[in-house]
Structures are given as C-alpha cells and as structure tokens.
Specification:
This protein has 8 helices and no strands. The protein has 217 residues and is mainly α. The chain is rod-shaped.
Length: 217
C-alpha cells in the first residue's frame, strides 16, 4: 500500500521514473549474468591452447575455443583459424574479431547511463510541477492552511527523491559494468598478445626444423 500511495502522491512523473527504474534493473541483470557466464580463466585457456598447438592440433584447439564461452575464446579462435590458413594476417583477424566482440559487451550500457542521467531531471520536472500547483493553489484564495497545499509540496518532494533514488544506483551499476567491460577487453588484448608471440615462436621452430631437414638431405 505504501508503494501505491507514493506513486499516487508523487504525480504522473513518478510513473516515468518507475519505468526508467525497471528498464535499468533489467539491463543490469542481463549484463551481469552475461559477464558472469563469459568470464573465463584466460591464463589456463591460453596455456591449454598452446599445449595443443605445439602438437599442431588445430582442430582440437578450435574445438576448445568453440566450447569455451566469452570473447577471449572467440578472438583466439579467429587467430588460430587465420594462422592455420597461412594466407591470412593473424593480427588483422584478431582486430576484426575484437571489433565484433567489444560492442557486444558494451550493448545497452549507454542506455543505462542515459537513465542515470535523466532520472534526476525527471525528478526535477516533478518538483517544478508540484511547485506550480502550489502557486496555482495560492492564487485561488487568500486564506489557506498548510493542508491546502501540503499535497502539492509532497508531490514535489516525492518526485525529487524518486529521481535521485533511481539515478544513484544507475551510476553505480553503469560504472561497475564499464569496469567489467574494460577488464574483459584487457583479457582479450593480453590473450591475443600471448597467442601471437606463440605463433612467432612456433613458426620459427617450424622453419628451423625445415632447414635442418634440408641440410640432412
């Protein structure tokens, strides 16, 4: 009952604020579960791939990446496929894959940030509307009691509080999710650097072995 009283006394702006709060909560929950599901141990993944690739197990390495969730595994799979094909640039393949993965991580974060920005403005709008009603009541009669415009002042205060109550968690959630995106992007860069270093070492070893075979012949 208290919730409905607040919504009723807060005026029509409160329904806009409520809609924003529901949207922000859905975005945060969806992003949080996505990041939790796609977070992997990058060190173990790269170590497992290099052990497989040392035996030239490209199919096994691609299968390992395919069965591992997260942008790191997908970027590494693109790198392995490019190295396997020989005629493709591994760095370019990594950059193309990363350009596809990072926007997926950032999806709807701008909406969450926008909600955090406009919620106080909606609360301010409700405050202005409440004060307009106060002055409208004052203009109608000379003799007034506090009860005559208490509801208008209550509307102004509730809408301001509602806007701030949505904005503060939105800012916290937005900054948290942005930090998670930056951490996962850093994991992608780190894993890409390690796999490129491995490919250079592995290719150098293959060329040395090939030269040794030719010398023996």
């Amino acid at each position: 009952m208290l919730f409905w009283e607040i919504m009723r006394d807060g005026g029509p702006v409160m329904w806009l604020i409520l809609f924003c709060s529901i949207g922000a909560a859905l975005i945060f929950v969806e992003r949080w579960f996505l990041f939790h599901r796609e977070q992997v141990n990058v060190g173990e993944l790269v170590k497992g791939l290099t052990n497989v690739l040392k035996r030239d197990g490209y199919i096994e390495a691609i299968s390992l990446c395919d069965n591992t969730p997260g942008p790191v595994a997908r970027v590494l799979m693109a790198a392995i496929q490019a190295y396997k094909n020989k005629d493709e640039d591994v760095r370019l393949a990594i950059e193309d894959a990363a350009m596809m993965e990072v926007p997926k991580l950032e999806r709807n974060l701008n909406v969450l940030g926008t909600i955090g920005y406009i919620s106080p403005l909606l609360g301010l709008l409700g405050t202005v509307l409440g004060m307009m009603r106060v002055f409208n009541t004052l203009s109608k009669t000379v003799y007034l009691s506090s009860a005559d415009f208490a509801g208008d002042i209550r509307m102004a205060l509730i809408s301001a509080a509602g806007g701030l109550s949505v904005a503060i968690p939105c800012y916290i959630a937005h900054n948290y999710l942005v930090a998670r995106v930056e951490a996962m992007t850093l994991d992608v860069e780190k894993a890409s650097s390690e796999i490129i270093h491995f490919f250079k070492y592995h290719q150098r070893g293959e060329e040395t072995e090939k030269c040794s075979d030719e010398d023996i012949r």
